[in-house]
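Our consortium's second objective concerns turning raw sequence data into structural hypotheses that experimental partners can test. To show how far this objective has progressed, the report includes one record in full. It was chosen at random from the queue rather than selected for favorable results. The single chain below, 366 residues long, was entered without modification.
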Amino acid sequence: MTPLIGNQARFDAVARAFDRGIVPQTLLLSGPLGVGKSTFVTRYAQLLLCPQIERDAQLPRGCGRCRVCHQIEIGTFPDFRLFRPIISATEQTVAPETLDSSVFTVDQAREFIEEGSRKPLVGPRKVMVVSQFDRANESAQNAMLKTLEEPSAGIHLVLTTENARSLRATILSRCWHLQFAPAADGEIEEWLRGEFSDASPSDLQSAVRAAHGRPGLAKRELQRLQNAAEGEISRFERASAILARIERALPVGAFGLTETALLCAKEWWEQDSEGADSKKLGAKGNRAALARFLDELMIAERARLSQDLSRGAKSAFALEEMRKTRHYILRNANANLALDVMFSRLIASENAASRARREPKPSVSR
């Protein structure tokens, strides 16, 4: 059974409530991609649906071995339904989690409502999950309000989101809300060492740094490093190298940095897009790839700040530029131009700081 790295206390709180006969009918899980929400959903569904409940440290849990637990794990149990956003209203293919512009439509909301009106097929309960509920448009959220407020008997709903602030207050008020925070690096490294006994210490440390507190991404990065060609470095190291280039680049260096960014974004997207057809994703896929590249760049910049607090003002400026560029790209700005502008501004900021350090300080006359 996959452990809940960094989030065991949250699951224990739910298990204690279950033990007292208090089961929330609508549960909201919020936190960054890869922080453990999907693992929590699986464990929660097993807790509610397993016919052979066991106890661990005096708390109940699904056994993790029976047919029901196995079917929940692979997503085939009839009383466990998962609804995920699609690429667009015209392209009904389920979207990869990394596609920022995916949508959860009114038609999907109606399917969810209809499923919620049906009684469980096997046992006394049914668990229905909407992944990345922040992708639901206003009409879809409105359509689901009544179902979220008053689920039918035996129906338990779970919503997951990367950004709870994007949900309507009327949705939030109907949910028991659990917020997931990044896990400690030491806890992630210990877990990975147990899962990958043959991993080198350097690969373990690289995977942990690249994940920035997200166990799922740490595991993905370690798997990639173990299968990588000799000499290939981690995403974190590549992002850090790009930031180092900014410090010593001339203004024209922005164009070369943009070219590097586009290559990294394309490569990383192909690794993360869950085999999605790039033709179906079209320009949405390109924008999502660049958004996720900028996420990696911001992780590397925050790491630099944590190691050198004197970078405070420079890091704050850099992070704001990256955040704005990510926002513009996802809203159909010309990606190449947006990156050119961002890198030019970052280079200019570094050059100005360098000149300020070299210029002699004026003497103070008495």
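The partners drew two points from this record. The chain has 14 helices and seven strands. The mean pLDDT is 88. Both points have been shared with the crystallography group to help prioritize constructs.
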